[in-house]
Write a structure and sequence with these properties.
The complex is a heterotrimer. Chain A has 19 helices and 24 strands. By secondary structure, chain A is α/β, with parallel strands linked by helices. Chain C is globular and about 55 Å long. Classes of the chains: A alpha/beta, B mainly alpha, C mainly alpha. Chains B and C meet through helix 6, helix 12 and helix 14 of B and helix 6, helix 12 and helix 14 of C.
Chain lengths: 509, 314, 317
């Protein structure tokens, strides 16, 4: 299967460095893909895979380094630069237009014309059908997208990228929404494109796919290149250790969780296909880490627990009492707080002041018959700005003037201000610098020490290992296992996270 | 123009505009700068002020109300006809205000629970209210002959101040306090700026939005009463430029067109600017119709300025 | 499952059923309605509403709205009438279309480059256009004497068909071709479906939107000319409220607010439904103003029904 001869790479990225405010996403990364090979690209969440891919697609520009296409040094400044060169990317977030049909989506932007002014609908559908047939995708070009499953939409997306026989095809987690049969179709498709001489970059979390498809494998960790080698030279264990490879400096001491009272009990909670029959105990005074791959249902679970969404099935109790919040304000009243994962769109109202943001969930307790006490509000904002060391010129400045780490502290402060008994933190350290990270860890430990039940969802395994007493690992909507943090390793967590439940998307859809 | 200059200009515009207009009309018309004229200006613009305060809240939460002119017309017709039918004016007045709150609540409920853009819902309400007003009157104005009512809102004074002015002042203070000193008000800013973040912080977004439309109804109802008292009749087309003027006042006040930031104080300045413009143009015998163009261009200027100031691409 | 089936069907075909019901109902209720002359008259009456609705269809499909159409059509009509009265002859047509296109271009530029929500941008145009019409007329009716012009846009006839109706037919066919049979049309749907995706796919989103607004404006120039030709004079409020009737026709036809789904044929049915309704209610001696009320209620109910039907479709997939 290895066709890695010494021909010129189709696409190569040299010494790519990309910085975002407060974080270096890519640090001197090299990567190349040759004609007729599948190059798998692996790494944990946040390792920098999507950033590198976006640079290849012309969406981001590197701060350092350069790109060569067939030996020629080029600058990709917009998406069409990449597609003009035959680099096609299938993103995880689909760009299929849901209101059109399959053929229109495949041919968009290159609709065949008759006489230059008359759309040749016959040719449009026959060309699109020809693409589908060539790729052996069993879809009718005239079917509306709205009638397709998520997996089928993904196939349309791929068909669009392959419409003009791509030189380089980048697939980002292409199987994440596919059923088993569709997966096989996709693998066959990738095989065929490879035989046709395309260079394929294949980004995935799933081990089985890597060994099924890849000629070469590159592993990225923390934005740095770790290893590139022939797929034959890798074993599952070797691959996992390459992805992990960090020592955890500090662990929580072995807390005996069974001694602690149960704060929030989750029993058989389900919603759509995202959360399936989840049961879980969250104890007062513990830190429960929740690990899992992107899309494993962690955020969806937290949203059910916080009253943001309503479950289809299952029940919860809070300190033994029935707990079924109909809204976030219900959850707030019973002392359950939820920090959402996206600070900018969900966690904060960026145009409002730091004080207003901190006070927002507490407005009920800061007012008497609707009348707000500005003194109390200011005092509350001062108190929590001080406790969390929020660096802002004053509590009256707009939240969007703060650095990422300080914004995150504001987002946490507003929930601590309601004095929660249970706090659910979704990616509490995403996009913050090292210093702020350490402060947030200390904060989480203090909360637990004071008897608060803390649940932390995190995609960074070292973080989960460092701050948790116990760790629940989710895979495909279910709890794959709950382990004590003292015994867990990154490897063992990843093993659990890679648990493959038989896909039943088709049944759900 | 760079963003910070645009910001400065946006913030100064209501003040500068007001000073320029007052200066210009003072020089250009001998009738402008006197107490009688200012008193008239205040009573003439009372309805505009009330509606503009309401519009401020509506725009703050990212919505719009295009139905106010038509609704004021309809309400004034209902009020006049109830009085003609012999109903005591306080009861008729209360009823009209209740109807107005109901209309506002309906606008809000359809917008929020039907998830329909408010400009469509209120455009529908505009058609309905206009049609009903004409159906009720047959296109003629209905005279109000209960002089207690007319005197109270037209010539009576308290502490030497005309009553409409006092009502406007009270409404202004109420709106100002509501926005800045109540839980409800602070929540409106969050709802307007980021609905999802507000919801995730426990704000009942839908109820808040409907409540704003209900408040809008209350202020429109009050405005309709004052307008009917000033004109002495109820007529379907009694205040043709009211919607335009109210939206203009809010936008000149620098409110964000997408919601999330607005100020009643700045709306007051914007409304004053419009009121002075209306008054001055009458004094100078400017063709009354040209006001649409003048105000349209002013809004255009304010809108572009607001977008520049908030860093929209140009 | 059954429920979702019927609701989905309602979303897709409700308009055709409603149209058939109204026509049959009117035919039974009123002999005057079913007279052939009356049916031809309806075709003539809907010319103005039809063209405005077709233009509005493009705007709504692209996910925007145009509240200025009535005022712009009135302003164009007034300007054209004055140009005719001043003896500009055929140049008056250029002027009229130019005025409309100018307002349309302003709408497009404001929406695209200043990123002003289109309901605000077009509201500004609405006010300015209304001001232009009012100021130019000073409340008077503008008379003009140009039979060739009136014949060209409304009163003339070819093969027994009135020219206003022919214009409606011509515009419908041209726009139908543009929307259903050109790349431009395909991209209008794409933009309405998802603007971010369309940008990522490299479609000329900005240019297409500006073109749509400008085209809508130019067509309002045509509407203004048909209006003044029909009655032989121009008034500042000639097309007042047209934006609402046009939105009503488009939405009743089943083109979704928010963009992406709908068609010109649907709008045509919506236009005919409103035309038949107006005509029938007039024949049954229902007051014009009561008709306005009925239309207002109808639009809100239809939009709510549409939302209700679509919500379930969304939940089912």
């Amino acid at each position: 299967m290895t066709s890695s001869n010494h021909t010129l790479p189709r696409l190569s990225l040299h010494g790519i460095t990309k910085r975002f405010p407060g974080v270096t996403a890519l640090d001197d990364v090299n990567f190349d893909v040759r004609a007729g090979e599948v190059h798998a690209f692996m790494g944990e969440n946040g390792a920098g895979k999507s950033t590198l891919m976006k640079i290849g697609a012309g969406i981001h520009r590197p701060d350092e380094g350069y790109i060569e296409v067939e030996g020629q040094r080029l600058a990709l400044s917009k998406p069409s630069d990449a597609t003009d060169l035959g680099i096609h990317t299938v993103f995880q977030e689909l760009t299929v237009l849901p209101n059109l049909d399959v053929g229109q989506n495949i041919m968009i932007g290159q609709e065949p014309m008759r006489g230059g002014v008359w759309l040749d609908r016959g040719a449009l559908y026959s060309n699109a059908q020809a693409v589908l047939d060539r790729l052996d995708i069993k879809l009718n070009a005239r079917t509306p997208i709205s009638a397709l499953s998520a997996g089928q939409r993904q196939m349309v997306e791929i068909a669009r990228a392959c419409g003009e026989t791509p030189k380089i095809l980048v697939l980002d987690e292409p199987t994440s929404s596919l059923g088993r049969q569709e997966e096989e179709l996709l693998f066959d498709l990738v095989d065929r494109l490879r035989t046709d001489g395309a260079g394929i970059v294949y980004i995935t979390h799933r081990m089985s796919e890597v060994f099924r498809l890849a000629d070469r494998i590159t592993v990225l960790r923390d934005g740095k290149h770790v290893v590139t080698g022939d797929a034959n030279d890798f074993t599952r264990e070797k691959l996992i250790s390459a992805m992990v490879g960090r020592a955890v400096d500090e662990r929580r001491s072995g807390l005996v969780v069974s001694d602690l009272p149960v704060a929030l009990r989750v029993d058989g909670l389900s919603r759509d296909a995202a959360v399936r029959d989840v049961s879980l105990d969250l104890h007062a005074g513990e830190v429960l880490g929740v690990a899992g791959l992107m899309g494993a249902g962690r955020t969806e679970l937290a949203r059910l627990m916080a009253g943001v969404d309503r479950p289809d099935a299952g029940a919860m109790t809070l300190f033994g009492e029935n707990y079924s919040p109909a809204s976030v304000s219900d959850a707030i009243k019973t002392g359950v707080a939820y920090l959402p994962e996206d600070r900018k769109t969900q966690g904060l109202v960026l145009s409002l002041s730091v004080a207003d943001n901190i006070a927002l969930p507490s407005l009920g307790s800061l007012s008497r018959s609707g009348w707000l006490s500005m003194t109390k509000l200011k005092a509350l904002a001062q108190e929590w700005s001080g406790k969390l060391g929020i660096r802002a010129a004053s509590p009256d400045v707009a939240a969007d003037t703060l650095s990422g780490g300080n914004q995150q502290k504001v987002a946490i402060a507003k929930w601590l201000a309601i004095a929660p008994k249970v706090i659910l933190l979704d990616e509490p350290t995403r996009g913050v610098d090292v210093g702020a990270k350490a402060e947030i860890y200390a904060l989480i430990r203090d909360l637990a020490a004071q008897g608060t039940a803390v649940m932390v969802i995190s995609s960074e395994l070292p973080e989960v290992l460092q701050i948790s007493d116990r760790i629940a690992v989710m895979a495909q909507g279910r709890i794959a296992g709950v382990v004590s943090a003292t015994n867990a390793t990154e490897e063992s967590l990843l093993e659990l996270a890679f648990t493959e439940v038989t896909p039943d998307h088709e049944a759900a859809a | 123009m760079n963003q910070s200059a645009a910001k400065l200009l946006r913030d100064l515009m209501p003040y500068l505009g007001l000073i320029l207009l007052i200066g210009y009309f003072s020089l250009a018309s001998e009738f402008f700068l006197n107490a009688r004229n200012f008193e008239r200006l205040a009573t003439d613009s009372a309805t505009l002020m009330l509606v503009a305060f309401g519009m401020t809240l509506v725009i703050l939460i990212g919505e719009i109300d295009l139905s106010v002119s038509a609704v004021v017309g309809l309400l004034s017709v209902i009020l006049a006809q109830m009085m003609v039918a012999g109903m005591a004016w306080p009861i008729a007045m209360m009823l009209v205000i209740v109807i107005s709150v109901a209309i506002g609540t309906l606008n809000g409920a359809i917008t929020v629970y039907g998830q329909i853009p408010s400009f469509i819902v209120t455009l529908g309400m505009l058609a309905i209210a206009t049609g009903l007003a004409f159906v009720f009157t047959g296109a003629i104005s209905v005279a109000i002959l209960q002089y207690d009512f007319l005197d109270l809102f037209y010539s009576d004074q308290i502490f030497g101040l005309p009553i409409p002015l006092i009502i406007v002042a009270l409404a202004f203070i109420a709106c100002l306090l509501t926005l800045n000193r109540t839980r409800f008000g602070r929540e409106l800013f969050a709802v307007g700026a980021n609905m999802e973040a507000a919801r995730l912080s426990g704000v009942p977004v839908k109820q808040r939005k409907v409540a704003v439309f209900a408040i809008m109804g209350l202020l429109v109802g009050l405005g309709a009463v004052l307008s009917a008292a000033r004109l002495g009749n109820g007529a379907p087309g009694s205040s043709p430029t009211l919607t335009l003027d109210a939206i203009a006042a809010v936008i000149i006040g620098g409110a964000s067109l997408f919601g999330g930031w607005a100020s009643v104080l700045r709306t007051l300045l914007g409304a004053l600017l419009i009121a002075v413009l209306n008054n001055g143009m009458v004094l100078m015998n400017v063709n009354i119709d040209a006001q649409y163009i003048v105000k349209g261009v002013i809004i255009l200027f304010a809108v572009v300025l607001e977008r520049l100031a908030s860093g929209a691409r140009t | 499952m059954m429920g979702s089936f019927t609701r989905a069907q309602l979303a897709n075909y409700g308009i055709f059923v409603a149209f058939a019901l109204v026509v049959v109902g009117m035919m039974i209720a009123s002999p005057a309605f079913r007279a052939p002359e009356n049916l031809i008259a309806i075709g003539r009456q809907v010319a103005v509403l039809g063209i405005a609705s077709f233009a509005m269809t493009f705007v709504i499909l692209a996910g925007e709205i145009d509240l200025s159409v009535g005022a712009v059509a009135s302003a164009s009509g007034v300007v054209t009438a004055m140009a005719l009265a001043a003896g500009y002859g055929p140049w008056a047509i250029v002027v009229g279309v130019g005025v409309g296109a100018g307002f349309g271009l302003m709408n497009g530029l404001l929406t695209v480059y200043a990123a002003v929500p289109s309901f605000i941008a077009t509201l500004v145009s609405f006010f300015i256009a209304q001001g232009v019409a009012l100021t130019l007329t000073g409340g008077r009716t503008i008379l003009f004497d140009a039979d060739w012009f009136r014949e060209l846009f409304a009163t003339g006839s070819v093969f027994g068909l009135r020219s206003a109706f022919l214009w409606l037919l011509f515009v419908f066919l041209a726009l139908w071709w543009l929307l259903a049979r050109t790349r431009f049309g395909a991209h209008v749907y794409a933009i309405g479906g998802s603007q971010p995706s369309s940008r990522m796919l490299g479609l000329a989103v900005d240019r297409i939107k500006i073109l749509i607004f400008t085209m809508a404006g130019a067509l309002m120039g045509l509407v203004g000319m048909i209006l003044i030709s029909r009655i032989g004079n121009a008034r500042s409020d000639g097309a007042i409220g047209l934006e609402f009737d046009a939105i009503a026709a488009v939405v009743i036809g089943g083109t979704a607010l928010g963009g992406g789904t709908g068609s010109l044929v649907r709008s045509l049915i919506g236009v005919m439904l409103i035309g038949v309704l107006n005509n029938g209610l007039a024949i049954l001696n229902v007051d014009f103003n009561a008709q306005q009320v009925i239309k207002g209620v109808l639009v809100i109910v239809v939009v709510l029904l549409d939302r209700w039907a679509r919500d379930l479709k969304g939940a089912a997939t």
